[in-house]
């Protein structure tokens, strides 16, 4: 017997509501599937799918699009194009990422100037051998070069 929300056993209201008779109801998708005699849906004809369709469209990468637009020089001078996109500098501050993990950096080590994400990463920064912090800073072009 089915159990309701309160944990009590409830009786089906009719014989048609029992699990054995639910799929035998007329109009249910399972009943129409069983009555059709289809055992493999891959063998059924799909009228919505055109078998003669071939995609003749070719995808172009940015380099091909730029080359084509430069070849078509019929555009006005002030028309925006891929090779001449000029944008003003952003008004938002530059995002800072952890030099060790790549996650957003909330802190900076004052001694080595390495950005880090959490206290766990800071413990790793403290154990770096001398001089290796310059390699991490070189990745973001912030290393110190003496002349």
Q: Compute the gyration radius: what is it? A: 34 Å
Quote the beta fraction: under 5%
- Can you give the mean pLDDT? 77
Catalogue the unreliable spans. none
Helix percent band: 25-40%
State the distance separating the first and last CA atoms: 86 Å
What spatial order of strands do you see in the largest sheet?
1-2
> Structural class given helices, strands, pairing?
mainly alpha
Number of strands: 2
Biggest sheet character: 2 strands, antiparallel
Shape: flat
Number of helices: 5
Can you write the helix and strand succession as a string?
Answer: HHHEEHH
Molecular structure report:
Helices cover 25% and strands 3% of the residues. The chain has a two-stranded antiparallel ribbon. The longest helix has 10 residues. It has 147 residues and is mainly α. The mean pLDDT is 77. The termini are far apart.
Secondary structure layout:
Blueprint: H1 19-22, H2 29-36, H3 62-71, E1 107-108, E2 115-116, H4 119-126, H5 133-139
Antiparallel strand pairs: 1-2
Write out key terms for the chains shown.
single chain; 147 residues; mainly alpha; two-stranded antiparallel sheet
Short description:
This protein is mainly alpha-helical and 147 residues long. The protein has helices spanning 19-22, 29-36, 62-71, 119-126, 133-139, and strands spanning 107-108, 115-116.
